[in-house]
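Lab channel / #folding
Pinned by the channel admin:
"Please post every new chain as: sequence first, then the structure tokens as a reply. Keep commentary short and put observations after the output so the thread stays searchable."

First post following the new format, from NK:
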Amino acid sequence: MEISGVVWRLLLLAGVAVSLTAVVAVARPGGRWGLVARRRLVLSVPWGTLLAATGIVGFYLVVQNGLANPRDPVVIPFRAWGYFYPMGMLTAAFAHGGLGHLVGNVTGTLVFGSVAEYAWSHFPRERGSSSFGSLRTNPLARIGAWAVGVLGVGVITGLFALGPVVGFSGVVFAFVGFALVRYPLTTVVALAATSAVGLVYRALRRP
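Reply from TO:
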């Protein structure tokens, strides 16, 4: 008997839910892992990475008209056509060619950006330094600096891209490189997690 696509999707979502429950049970966010995250991230949340992910999703939905046409967004005006077309050079990194392109880069941003932002830390790591002792050690300023840095890397990738490209991939690669230097094993695990998320996404689209 052939199983319908809807049933496959429900089974897949049930499997994902069970897996996530197992991960939470093993990791115990309220325990040691949560304590480690709170030492580096405000409320254990990578706020700068969330801002970046929210920004590119908002750009896709609003600026690229993705709300009206999620599978056929406006792309041509935002391509990095050349240095005589500054709008494209400044926006290419934040535009995406389709829903799958966006989902892939948002997933990479959330996974690798979180690891990289953890390495950056919202709180000063030097012994004797105070979190609000100066602008450099202020957690809110450090979150803002991270977000601005991500924006800057995005613009740079648009300026030096080969051809009229679009996408946040250059920034994601920067996250991977930064995270790999600081936490190589964690980054390898994150790569595996990203592949798993991509597999689930493809399975949901084409069961």
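NK: The mean pLDDT is 79.
TO: also worth noting, Residues 137 and 206 are 48 Å apart (CA to CA).
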